[in-house]
Each structure stands twice: as structure tokens, then as C-alpha cells.
Amino acid sequence: MAQVYFEPIGEEIECEEDETVLDAAFRHGYSLVYGCREGQCSACKCFLLEGEVSLKRYSTFALSDAEEASGYTLLCRAMPDTDLTIELLHVQENYRLEHAIKQGQGTVESCERLTHDIYRLVLALDESSEFPFTPGQYMDLQVPGTDLCRSFSMACLPGNGHLEFLIRAYPQGAFASVLGAGLDPGTPIAFTGPYGSFRLADTDRDILMVAGGSGMAPVLALLRELAGQPSTRKIRFFYGARTGADLFNREPIEELGSRLADFEYHEVLSEPDVSGWTGLTGYVHEVAARALADGQLSEPEVYTCGPPPMVDALVDVLTSAHGLEEQDIHYDKFTTAVSE
């Protein structure tokens, strides 16, 4: 067991031999800055002041060889070989977990195919298994019949007796095979969570929402939260897809929008395949940015989820061309799992 000391917050934890520094922090009730927990997004990058670590498999996009040689590491991949002193590069004001991370089990209530590669999975919870979470967070789901886990954001609100997920089935993906074969109602699925810091900020500012693929899930959860409030905020939601066949959930989103004071939902196709398509076309990050350029929104908060290239492009155009501060852009990058 290793002792891990964090600068500049002055906290110390114990880390077991078989756990990462980030998992040990969770176990001690700390929520340090992190993202994918797969070594791909770089959100948990930190500097190793003292000690040595072994790194589980990760992407050099998140941590280059030069950075590792200079002393940088990833909290989600680092397993201590010695006692450590770590300098956190990003520290949030409240670094205590809002909800304890724990294990639970649900049973499949329904599994519905929405597009060729997007499924809606709903797990029913026993009263004893009710899990509190903040809209925008995610869970690790165990792939039925395996020891593998994959991370998926909830599209629902807490306290409803179920968990709803929008899952993209990647070719050769661990979850793709079970989704394609069909998940029978009553199938047990274990889960762990909640994880993530994606959530609504406590302000009354205008809101720009941008999503692609299954990144709709956490944005939908935020929209459901807003629809349950007496909110007068101006909200614009842009969803990007390749073709019309990739669009889904229009009716439930429009129903939620009918309960909001000033809401517009826009679908954007990058490769429109229907000659009769009269909606928006192009890359969703560019189309969404026009909502600022033409004055639809004033100094908004931004909530965006989806593939990393989409999120990165949106952050770049909003900060460089429209003057938004990155701290006002809240995002969750949907990376694919790294094989161990």
C-alpha cells in the first residue's frame, strides 16, 4: 500500500497495489478533476513531484512520451510503485464527492434500437438499489456474461426507479454484441457509479447545448432537469448527425421544450441523404456557433457531449472566434474504451 499526497490541496490518501490513484481518491471520498477514466482525454493529467508509478494502457494523445519522461502522469492510469507526491494541475473548488460511488444491480426493463447504431437501454431498480446521482453523470455497466465494464451517461433524472442510457454500438465493441443479440427483459446488469462532473451550473444565463451521437444522453438529462424548473432561460439545442437515418428522439425533446420558456431544437446533418431535407446542414459545431454570431444568445453557458473531434472543434471556435471563456464550456468527450 502506498501513501499519496496531493498538492496544492494538502490531502493524503492510501492507495492499494491493485488500484489507480484516481480510484483510490474516489474510495476516500475525493472527486479530483477527471474525464474518461480510460487514459484518452488528458483531463486528469498531473505532475509527479516524488515517487514512481506504473501506467495502465493509455493513449499518447492524452500523455505523450515526452510528457511522461518530464514527470507528467495520468491519475486514471497511474498505479503507485512507491509513495507519491502529486501536483494537481486543475483543482475544482469542491473536491469532495457529492454522491458516494458504489455498486448496484438493475434488470433490463427494455432495450430498443433507435437507429442503426444507437440503442435505448432502460434498467429497472429495486427500491433497495435506488442510486442518487446528479443529471449529467454516468455509470460503469458490466457487459453481461463478461468481466468487462463500459461507461455510459444517464439520460434520465434520479429517483424514478430506473436508469436510462443511450448507447452507441461500435463495431466489435464489447456492448455491441449483446445489444445486437438482444437483451431480454429481466436480464441482470451490475453497475458502479455515479461518475463525472458534467452538470448544470447554478446561474440564470442563456444556454447553448450541442451534442452528437450518444452524446445526446447527458444533454437530455440536463434538459429534463431544466424542464422541471420554473426557468425562463433562453436555450438552444443543436444535435449533429451524418444523415436523416441517424436522427432520433425528436418528439421527446420537443415535448420537453414545450415546458420551457424560450427553447429551440435544431437538427444538423453533415451528409444530408434526402433531397427533401429542409433543415440545417454542415458541421454541428459551426452551425451552433452561428447562434452566437447572429445574436440569438448572449454570453451563454455551453453544454456539449459527443465525439472528441466535435467537442474540440466547438471549444476552439467558441473561444477563438466568439470570445467565450473555456470555463463556461462544460463538456464530456465520449471516447471508446481502451483494451487492457
Question: Concise description?
Answer:
This protein is of the alpha/beta class and 340 residues long. It has 7 helices and 19 strands.
What does this structure look like?
The chain is of the alpha/beta class. 19% of the residues lie in helices and 32% in strands. The chain contains 7 helices and 19 strands. The chain has a 6-stranded antiparallel sheet with strand order 11-10-13-8-9-12. Strands 17-16-15-14-18-19 form a 6-stranded parallel sheet, sandwiched between helices. The chain has a 5-stranded mixed sheet with strand order 2-1-7-3-5. Strand 8 and strand 9 form a beta hairpin. The longest helix has 13 residues, at 308-320. The radius of gyration is 20 Å and the shape is globular. It starts with a strand and ends in a 7-residue tail after the last strand. The mean pLDDT is 91.
